[in-house]
Design brief:
single chain; 349 residues; alpha/beta; six-stranded parallel beta sheet; three-stranded antiparallel beta sheet; 14 strands
Length: 349
């Protein structure tokens, strides 16, 4: 399945009328033989995949957007729906296919495809089913776009990012999981809401697993450049640790609440992933808490992917921020790494 016909072959017998419609200016050089277009492919067009695609289009991040899914009818319907909005969007070529060959030459491969958890199903069984799915998806993607960056969004994202790294053969800097980028946004929102400030003025990170063992870095939170906890201590303003734990619990439970209310999450993760895509493709060197290979970082020895504050750019991971953690935070991060590592070990990769 390819993009719908929108070429210049409108004349009799498919005559190309573009040369008649536009006149070249005097002394113009021919178009360059090499394309500098930016191509993003989204694999999996469920609620999350389409929220990402729509946000990419509105933020003008790609010259080409390729959508891939196994459901051909839905795929074509989504493609046409987006194409029909062309008059309201920056110019982007949108294609759709059930064939991974449509992703050839991508700069960024965003994978949202994954099996949904069945009620009562163990986490390990879900991971094993997604491992089988990724074994079919990742090799053709990486072969068709050997210089691309892989951005994994499917859950459980940390383990699946590790799997994608193993299956792709890509260097570690070019395999990234969306990790706790959205968790950290929720964290910043809740803190901003408590302090009645703009969330953009809050610097706060959630590290570790995208899940129950995530770690809230209270020691490094600042608002407008002011470290919060040390400020409260200097001003002798009392605060309860239970209050902090409650905020973190709200972060962890945030997605579950949205799913319980509307059936799925989409918009926040769409903005979060597009935020990462912008930093990578525009080489912005911004710091995001994303899932990366943590070996040798913060006392973690094994090959495990989890979220750390990471500088991203056009080549993917540029480096990991060397934050000072309290002893408690360090222990919690080690516990989070161990929880992920146990699941990986059971896969036998």
């Amino acid at each position: 399945m390819q993009k719908s016909a929108s070429s210049t072959n409108l004349g009799p017998g498919g005559l190309d009328i573009a040369q008649s419609f536009f006149r070249p200016i005097h002394g113009a050089s021919p178009p360059p033989s090499t394309s500098r277009n930016t191509k993003i492919s989204v694999i999996g067009i469920g609620n999350v995949g389409m929220a990402i695609a729509q946000t990419i289009l509105t933020q003008d991040l790609a010259d080409e957007l390729a959508l891939v899914d196994v459901n051909a009818d839905k795929l074509r319907g989504e493609m046409l729906d987006l194409q029909h909005a062309a008059a309201f969007l920056p110019r982007t070529t949108i294609s759709a296919s059930i064939d991974y060959s449509s992703t050839l030459g991508s700069d960024l491969l965003i994978v949202t495809a994954g099996a949904r958890q069945i009620p009562g199903e163990s986490r390990l069984n879900l991971v094993q089913r997604n491992f089988a799915l990724f074994s079919k998806i990742i090799p053709p993607l990486s072969a068709g776009s050997p210089e691309a960056i892989l951005l994994i969004v499917s859950n459980p994202v940390d383990v699946l990012t590790y799997i994608a790294w193993k299956l792709s053969g890509f260097p570690t800097n070019r395999v990234i999981g969306s990790g706790t980028n959205l968790d950290s946004s929720r964290f910043r929102f809740l803190i901003a809401d408590h302090l009645d400030v703009n969330a953009q003025d809050v610097q706060a990170y959630i590290m570790g697993e995208h899940g129950d063992t995530s770690v809230a870095l209270w020691s490094s939170i600042s608002v407008g450049g002011v470290p919060i906890l040390s400020f409260l201590e200097r001003q002798q303003i009392a605060y309860e640790k239970q209050t902090l734990e409650k905020i973190h619990k709200e972060v962890v439970q945030g997605a579950y609440e949205v799913i319980a209310l509307k059936g799925y999450t989409s918009w926040a993760i769409g903005y979060s992933v597009t935020n990462l895509a912008r930093t990578i493709l525009r080489d912005q060197h911004r710091v995001h808490p994303v899932s990366v290979l943590a070996k040798g970082m913060y006392g973690i020895d094994g090959e495990v992917f989890l979220s750390l504050p990471t500088q991203l750019g056009r080549s993917g991971v540029l480096g990991v921020t060397n934050l000072h953690l309290t002893q408690e935070e360090s222990q919690q991060l080690q516990k989070s790494a161990l929880a992920i590592f146990k699941v990986q070990n059971q896969l036998g990769i």
